[in-house]
Queue: 2 jobs
Job 1
Amino acid sequence: MAATLDSFLTGTNAAFIAELYARYLGDPATVDASWVTYFSGLQEDGGAVLDELRGASWAPSDAGVIGRGDGDGGGAPSPIPTGTAGGSFGADQVRAATKDSLSALMMIRAYRVRGHLIARFDPLGLEGNTHHPELDPKTYGFTEADMDRPIFINHVLGLETATLREIVQVLRETYCGSIGVEFMHIMEPEEKAWIQRRIEGIRNQTQFTLKGKRAIYQRLVEADGFEKFLDVKYTGTKRFGLDGGESMIPALEQILKRGSQLGIKEVVLGMPHRGRLNVLAGIMCKPYVAIFSEFQGIASSPGDVHGSGDVKYHLGTSADRVFDGNTIHLSLAANPSHLEAVNPVVLGKVRAKQNERNDEARHQVMGLLMHGDAAFAGQGLVPETLDLSQLRGYRTGGTIHLIVNNQIGFTTSPAQSRSSPYPSDVAKGIQAPIFHVNGDDPEAVVHVARIATEFRQEFKRDVVIDLFCYRRHGHNEADEPMFTQPIMYRTIGGHPTTRELYARRLIKEGAITEEEAGRMVADFRARLEQEFEAAPGYKPNRADWLEGVWKGLVQFSGEEELRDDDTAVPIKVLREVGAAISRPPENFNVNRKILRQMDAKRKMIESGEGIDWGTAEALAFGSLLVEGTRVRLSGQDSGRGTFSHRHCVLVDQDTEERYFPLSEIRKGQATFEVMDSPLSEAGVLGYEYGYSLADPQTLVLWEAQFGDFANGAQVIIDQFIASGESKWLRMSSIVLLLPHGHEGQGPEHSSARPERYLQLCAEDNMQVVNLTTPANYFHALRRQMRRNFRKPLIVMAPKSLLRHKLVTSGLRDMAGGTGFQRVLPETDDLVADKKVRRVILCSGKVYYDLWQARRDAGIDDVALVRVEQLYPWPRNTLVKQLRRYSGAEVVWCQEEPANMGYWTFVFPRLDNILVELSGNKATRPVYAGRPAAASPATGMAKVHQKEQARLVEGALTAALKSLQQPFLRKTG
Ligand SMILES: Cc1ncc(C[n+]2csc(CCOP(=O)(O)OP(=O)(O)O)c2C)c(N)n1
């Protein structure tokens, strides 16, 4: 087991160990062999203490310097007397001096690791300890008598030699004041050393100028004044006030200011309800008058924009801010109530914006996420999103997280809310430094905000600020907190506001006078009064949603089915793409099986026949790429493809080097990205959705391993994909590829649950398709990017059809004159239309089962019509098809159980068509398929086959009567 110095040198036996360690350092032969082994294995930690004694990790000239450490030093002569240095010290003296130094250093190290445990960051003073044994000099063998004895610590803490009393004082100021820092869990020595240097040299405090202090005070005046004003004007209206956490505003301001100095040009913010109005006004510069008008029930967008709108504490907005001449563009993402769901969306947006700016160093665009303490600790999306932070296809150069830790989640106390000491603990897993800070010390808050920003820019890693504060009122302003937290709320009742406390501090310091402090409050209030008066006449004049990269795109209106989008591609281009995907790279050892596949592809392209699903997909991607449209595909194992059908990444069998055929079509083509994602659904889908929000010129696809797993991302589907445009006027062209089909693989690998998506469909919000030909898939993908509006596309993707001999298309089906087909009509020669006895409508794979069974049984009076696009429902095309078979009974066939799949969606729509066609005679569509079931599919292959055969046979031949009532429970 790897030894760490922390694990024992800070323990109660530290004094004894220090003595031994001192001896070992003087002469390893003087300690027992087992200890020699132990000490020599101390590696990084042991080395760090030794280095400090040798003058490595600290040099006074570094104080306040922001930048990387200056190497591992080690060259400075050690001022610790050595037994051989001139012979003026005896061995005992050497040992005593070394032991004192070592003990002091161990204690210093303990403060770095555990100092936060006795820091004072709870403004209410209800939480926290004042003593911890590992922070007590006695633990290190020191007595009261030792307190004033100088000890050599070789510039550690910026002190060459200091008394123990001085050392402890410096340590307490640095590690146990208003700020508690957790950074010793970071494994990267440079990052750890950077933080240590950044905080120790200045006792973890910034000496603010008068101007700086006033700016902080002004921010508090505004944050506090705005909440109070709303409280008076709209008493009892929900606003999820920031009261108690007002320091968040100067912290955000500092992040933006310091960030802009360090090269940040754009920040994407995501935040929950708490304090959002304050952020909208104070940080995003949304006019107060606009917010007041929304309180008065006036819509937030101009009247000509369609949509349901959303409550005011969910709305996003964007703004340009200027700090010291540096402009920084801000966009606050709209979000649903679902806490933390916006996190991956923000990161996806950041990544897209970085690409747009060619910001490969990820230096110019940054994500800034705010969180509640209960939500950060509790929601699974938090670790899912943190996990993306360093991955090649997803990294964004570090996010700053600010937890508004008001010590309560609605009515729930931390003891019920998390198993870890701090809400931030989950972020330790990705090595993020964590700054706990007392919200009632606004200077400390701004100080850590500054360091966090510098750290992000320096190391491009996530960093967390845990703003320890309180919540002055109930969860919302109508809630009574005394029901559940009486002690805390009695304390809060007598606790002055952050602004009041800071005013007192500044007055005491002489930084402002009492009148000035009061005048700033009154002036701000007068300004709010003015804006309040103007609110009834306020008219929003623009919906900021089709600007920038969205220019040229429009909000869709009209009848979707009447559209005929031009998605065909010249044969020449198809052949060019086809050549690229079937050409093995030179000097690259391609797997033999894949070589064979490539050869098969080459033949498909040359003959123009037999194009399978995977090839059609590659042709769609490739043709978009040569047209200048970027493609980004992410999902679990998407490079190869779960079903080994894609292989858009080739792996050299000797070197494991990767080759992307779709990136090698021609010079000047757009970029193609394919990522094997982490094993997350909500996190990754949220990320890709966010990406699509910020970049309408990239075809963004997310692929589920099997469609079933997409319900792990249900929040992203319900709250963003289905309803985002209606709520927030934000379009997305995200494509979901959801492998689907009842093929005997059991309850979890059969259904992508199309019913879920269909239930969400209305107002042309998205498209749901279950396609049966490679060409139709090709057109569906291209259609996404060849329209002047954007809509999500949900694809029930094939599994067995990937290799089905009938599931092929010709190149001609993708070339001139072809396009996407919402409905595929009968393809075989049957009896005359009027003589057709039954028409079966279906969608997806079951078509091929029906087709084969019909052929096997020699049936020629049953027509098969495929509904390729379920939503928008292709009513007109279906009317045309059904009119052909005017004498036929109409059956809907599906392989999914009746309560799943399409039936409940299709029935009223089909019925509506039949009513029209039959002139109100009671002809109703009839269901042929599995009966309603709790689980989507059986786990037994044999049962599956029997069921499948029965449903297919029933659809083709059974009397209508026997097909009725799929929802009745079978008895007997
Ligand atoms: C995913 C989710 N579950 C439940 C809720 C209901 N809810 C709204 S606020 C809240 C408490 C949040 O506490 P915390 O994260 O500490 O933020 P605070 O309100 O204290 O600022 C809860 C449970 C929600 N909005 N989202």
Note: The chain has a mean pLDDT of 90.
Job 2
Amino acid sequence: MRCPFCHESDDKVVDSRSSDDGTAIRRRRECLVCSRRYTTYERIEELPFSVRKRSGELEPFDRPKIVRGIQRAVTNRPIDDTTVELVAAQIEEDLRELGGEVTSEAVGLAVLEHLRVLDDVAYLRYASVYKEFEDIGDFEREVGLLQKTTEPKRKPRGD
Ligand SMILES: [Zn+2]
């Protein structure tokens, strides 16, 4: 940090603590050139993040909703709540990288992507709801896709 007194940027942090509401880190610094002290605040940038629904409506991203969806899909599967929370957090992180607004479709696909790695049964359950399976044929097709994608990849790359 540049010292507000002598404008040199050589300092050491003498104290670090959370602000009262926990949204910022307050750091007490001491300039190594003039020895004066000053305070800086480091804030987490919470970017707004929304989901565009099929209806065109925009709603704030709702991680608990993702968690509930995954929990339904993993019912009676050997997957604990901690894993579900971690997966939901990872999905949120992935989606945030796409920008401030994602489609509900992208959210569904991100969940599917993660469930496919996590558990086949949970994946198919989620897919059946998300893709609105109508008959057993849809299911069989999805199982086929699942088997195809879990086969060892031999992608010819380049020439
Ligand atoms: Zn200074």
Note: The mean pLDDT is 85.
